[in-house]
UniProtKB/TrEMBL annotation:
GO terms for molecular function: adenyl nucleotide binding; anion binding; oxidoreductase activity, acting on the CH-OH group of donors, NAD or NADP as acceptor. GO terms for biological process: small molecule metabolic process. This is Zinc-binding dehydrogenase. The keyword NADP applies. It comes from Natrialba swarupiae. InterPro entries: ADH-like_C, ADH-like_N, ER, GroES-like_sf, NAD(P)-bd_dom_sf, Zinc-ADH_QOR/CCCR. Keywords: NADP. The keyword NADP applies. Residues 11-335 form the Enoyl reductase (ER) domain. Transmembrane segments: none annotated.
C-alpha cells in the first residue's frame, strides 16, 4: 500500500509517497481502508522537527490522527466492528489502568498518547476506538472531527460555556478556531475572534462568528474586544502573547482554556490579576471518545457542518502542509488516500 511518509523533518519538502506493507490487525485491532484523514498543526510540528514525539531516528514516519474509512479486517478478539463498517477513529491512546482512566475523563490518562498512521491507504487501529458512522456522515466530514472539533468541544465544556456568554477565540480561522466558533454558537454563546486576514474572518462569519478583529497587535485586540464586552471564556490555542492578552481581557471570574502554543511556548501570568479577579487558567488536551460520538451525532442530525477548506489526494499531501504553514486555509484540510 502507499503512505504519505515524513522522510525528513524539514517541512513540506520532507513528505514522500512511498510503498510499505499493509498492516496486520493483531488480535484486538482493525485495519481500516482510509478514505479520509485530516491534518492538524500537530502533524506540521512533527514535519518541521518541532515535536519531541518524533526524531530523525524514527523516519520514515507516517502521521495522521483523524482517520475515517471502511473496516477491511479485524483481529480474532474483535466483536465491536466488522469488515464493511464505516467508521471514524478516536485517536486517543489510554492505558485503562491509571487513576485518571478509572475516574475520567479519559483524556487525562497519565500515559496518554495519540494514534498516528492515517496518511495511508490503510491504517491499523485499536478496534475499541472506532466510532460507527451513519450514512448521513461522509468520511471526509467525519475525518475533520476527531482532533479539532473534539478538542474545541472539550475546552468549551471546561469553561462551562453557555447561552449569552461571550467567548474570545484568538486565531479563529484554523481547525480548532473555526470549530470553537461553531460549537460556541451551538451552545448559545456569542463569539469574538481574531485573524491576520480580513478575508478569512469574512469566511468564518459564515460559520457563525459574531465579531471578527483583523489584527495581530495584542493591545489593539484588547481594546476592540473590550468595546464588545469582557469575555466569559477564552479558548486559547495560540499560547505566547495571546495568553497574557486572554488573561487581561477576560471578565472577572472568567476562564481561559489553553491547548496550544502556535504563537509561543511561554507566557507571563499576572498573579495579582489572577487572584483578585478570580480568573481561572486551565490546560486541556484533546477530548473524550464520548464527546467525539456526540459530535458525530450532531453532524448526522445536520446541527453541525464542519468547515472543510480543501481536500487533497495522497500524492498531494505536501501541498496540504504548505497550505497550513502558509496560513492560507479556513477550517480543515483533508487528505483522501
Ligand atoms: N492539546 C491538544 O489536544 C490540541 C489539539 C488540537 C490542536 N492543538 C493545538 O492548537 C493549535 C491550533 O491547531 P490547529 O490544528 O487548529 O492549527 P491551524 O489550523 O493551523 O490554526 C491556524 C490558526 O492559527 C493562527 N496562527 C497560525 N500561526 C500563527 C502565529 N504565528 N501567530 C498567531 N496566530 C497564528 C492562524 O491565524 P491567521 O488567520 O492569522 O492565519 C489561524 O487562525 C496548535 O498549536 C495545535 O498544536 C492542541
Ligand atoms: Zn490511563
Amino acid at each position: 500500500m502507499r503512505v504519505a511518509a515524513f522522510t525528513d523533518l524539514i517541512g513540506p519538502d520532507g513528505v514522500d509517497v512511498i510503498d510499505c506493507e499493509t498492516p496486520d490487525p493483531g488480535s484486538d485491532g482493525a485495519v481500516v481502508d482510509v478514505d479520509a484523514c485530516a491534518i492538524n498543526r500537530h502533524d506540521l510540528w512533527i514535519l518541521e522537527g518541532e515535536s519531541a514525539m518524533v526524531e530523525t531516528d524514527d523516519l520514515p514516519f507516517v502521521t495522521g490522527l483523524d482517520v475515517a474509512g471502511t473496516v477491511r479486517e479485524v483481529g480474532e478478539g474483535v466483536s465491536r466492528v466488522e469488515p464493511g463498517d464505516r467508521v471514524v477513529l478516536c485517536p486517543n491512546e489510554t492505558c485503562g489502568q491509571c487513576r485518571f482512566c478509572r475516574e475520567g475523563p479519559e483524556n487525562l490518562c497519565a500515559n496518554f498518547s495519540l494514534s498516528h498512521g492515517g496518511l495511508a491507504e490503510a491504517a491499523r487501529v485499536e478496534a475499541d476506538r472506532l466510532v460507527a458512522l451513519s450514512d448521513e456522515v461522509s468520511t471526509t466530514v467525519a475525518a475533520s472531527i476527531p482532533t479539532a472539533y473534539t478538542t474545541a468541544f472539550h475546552m468549551l465544556r471546561r469553561a462551562d460555556v453557555g447561552p449569552a456568554d461571550l467567548v474570545f477565540v484568538p486565531g479563529a480561522t484554523g481547525g480548532v478556531g473555526v470549530a470553537t466558533v461553531q460549537l460556541a454558537t451551538i451552545l448559545g454563546a456569542r463569539t469574538v475572534g481574531t485573524s491576520s486576514s480580513e478575508s478569512k474572518l469574512e469566511q468564518v462569519r459564515e460559520f457563525g462568528l459574531d465579531h471578527g478583529i483583523q489584527s495581530t497587535d495584542t493591545d489593539e485586540i484588547y481594546e476592540q474586544v473590550r468595546e464588545i464586552g469582557a469575555p466569559d471564556a477564552v479558548v486559547n490555542h495560540l499560547g505566547g502573547e495571546y495568553t497574557e492578552l486572554g488573561q487581561r481581557v477576560m471578565a472577572r471570574g472568567g476562564t481561559m482554556v489553553v491547548c496550544g502554543r502556535t504563537a509561543g511556548g511561554t507566557s507571563t501570568i499576572d498573579v495579582a490579576d489572577l487572584f483578585l479577579e478570580h480568573k481561572r487558567i486551565v490546560g486541556s488536551t484533546m477530548g473524550t471518545q464520548d464527546e467525539l460520538c456526540r459530535l458525530v451525532d450532531l453532524v448526522a442530525a445536520s446541527d453541525l457542518e464542519p468547515a472543510i477548506d480543501e481536500t487533497y489526494a495522497l500524492a498531494e499531501t505536501a501541498d496540504a502542509f504548505v497550505a497550513m504553514s502558509e496560513r492560507e486555509s479556513v477550517g480543515k484540510l483533508v487528505v483522501q488516500p
